[in-house]
Amino acid sequence: MKIAVVTDSTAYLTKEEQEKYNIHVVPIPLTIDGQSYQEGVDISNAEFYDKLAHSSTFPSTSQPPVGEMIELYQQLAAEGYDAAISIFLTSAISGFVNTVTQLAEQLKDQIKIIPFDSHITVKLMGYLTIEAAKEVAAGKDLDTILANLDKLRQTFHSVFVVDDLQNLVRGGRLSNASAIVGSILKIKPLLTMDTPSYSIEAFEKVRSMKRAKLRCEQIFEEKIAQADYPIHAIVIHANAPEAGQKWLNKLSADHPEVTFELGYFGPVIGTHLGQGALAIGWMCDTDRRPL
């Protein structure tokens, strides 16, 4: 069976990773001040955050056009693919994976589409996609690949803090917004997607960004101490590379046993989190312990 791997642009894979692992990336559309863009295609991170800072209206995101998705899967079928593992951002914040589930039925006579809800987004999802591609290249069967992706997905964890809740609240992406709206501006809610529904939820309130980051570090330390596998962690920033790098340096010094890297929130996720957001995401390091 010839298997393709498909994901969306919020995986934030580099062009080199896409080519190396033969991953097909679907760009997510966004609109700022009436102008439409495709993430990863015609707007850079720097351009997006500059527009976000000066936009007169709240940016919006949408699903890729159904027609384009049909064309993609039909093209894959024409190239000889029998199946397409399709790993997309969590259904808790986007209906994209549900749309593809419907397409799977519509196109079942042409190609077997396997929608896979990542339960997350950003580079954690990117590594889930890379794992799928590696297993395809290794010749593993479809059931084994999906079982291993589920194992890896279960190791995903995240904790983050935003500098301004306005975007999350206005975009309707904060599931318990009523619990924190109206708080003093200096209060920084800690957020996570480690929830039963994998939606973004606030779970603690901390005064000041400094204390919020410290609490994130404490939670990270507590969680990784419970893990029975090596950890790969990503410090993720929304147009705050210096702050992200500084935090990564501290975490690396505190946890030399962990593999760290610096990631970013691109335009689509940045639309909802706003500039200045910081996060720690972590997972099993499959380079050190294969699934």
Describe this structure in words.
It contains ten helices and 13 strands. The protein is of the alpha/beta class and about 290 residues long. It folds into two domains: about 120 residues, 3-Layer(aba) Sandwich (Rossmann fold); about 130 residues, Hypothetical Protein Tm841, Chain: A,domain 3. Helix 5 runs antiparallel to helix 6. It is globular. The relative contact order is 0.15.
Task: Enter the CATH topology name of the largest domain.
Answer: Hypothetical Protein Tm841, Chain: A,domain 3
Main sheet summary: 6 strands, mixed
Share in helix: 25-40%
Tell me the number of helical segments per DSSP (H or I, 4 or more residues long).
10
Which percent range describes the beta-strand content? 15-25%
The stretches of 5 or more residues where confidence is low (pLDDT under 50) are: none
- The strands making up the biggest β-sheet line up spatially as 10-9-8-13-11-12
The SSE string, one letter per element, is: EHEEEHEHEHEHHEHEEHEHEHE
Shape: globular
Domain count, please report it.
Answer: 2
CATH class of the largest domain: Alpha Beta
Main features:
single chain, alpha/beta, Rossmann fold, Hypothetical Protein Tm841, Chain: A,domain 3, six-stranded mixed beta sheet, four-stranded parallel beta sheet, 10 helices
Short description:
The protein has 291 residues and is an alpha/beta fold. It has helices at residues 15-20, 45-54, 66-78, 96-106, 122-137, 142-153, 166-170, 209-225, 241-254, 267-273, and strands at 3-8, 23-26, 29-32, 35-38, 60-61, 83-88, 112-117, 157-161, 187-192, 201-207, 231-237, 259-264, 278-284.
